[in-house]
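Subject: for your reference before the review

Hello V.,

The reviewers asked for a structural picture of the protein, and I figured it would be easier to keep everything in one thread rather than splitting it across files. Below is the amino acid sequence we used in the manuscript, unchanged from the supplementary table.
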Amino acid sequence: MQQDGVGTVDVTSHEDARAQLEALGAFRGKLGVELVCPWWNAPVMGGLLALLTFAMSLDPPFIFLLEGLCIALMGIFYALARRRMGYFVNGYRRGRTRKVATGMMLAVYAMMALSGAGARVWHLAWLPWLATLGSFAIGYGAGLLWQRAWRADMTATL
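And here is what came back from the structure prediction:
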């Protein structure tokens, strides 16, 4: 019989039910620790989005180089999360987390457009830097909001 509190098991006796309730209690006790992301999670997300935003202000070969660097860094970020937590949760799960992720992406896309237009259309050297800082702030803040929404969604279902 599975006793980790995660799976569904047929319960045929009082002892089975007691064992499942104890497993569920142990799982709930462990859940608070499991759902805490490391302190560097949100700043890393903000930094990756800032790099992507700044890339839009560069010439095409450098755009691709910086985007390639971001993809490699995202792979490292993914691997570290998998090693620490045993799984990786994408930002588009459902419920509140999807709303936070969608809002973050729309705001970052606006910053990316601002960065590219500032460098290529309006020729304002300071605008890509401002958009990059804006993307970092958006990514950092959305990372914190996403973690809070994910914890709320996960604990509300138990």
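For the response letter, the relevant points are probably these. The CA atoms of residues 36 and 148 lie 9 Å apart. The mean pLDDT is 86.

Happy to draft the paragraph if you're swamped.

O.
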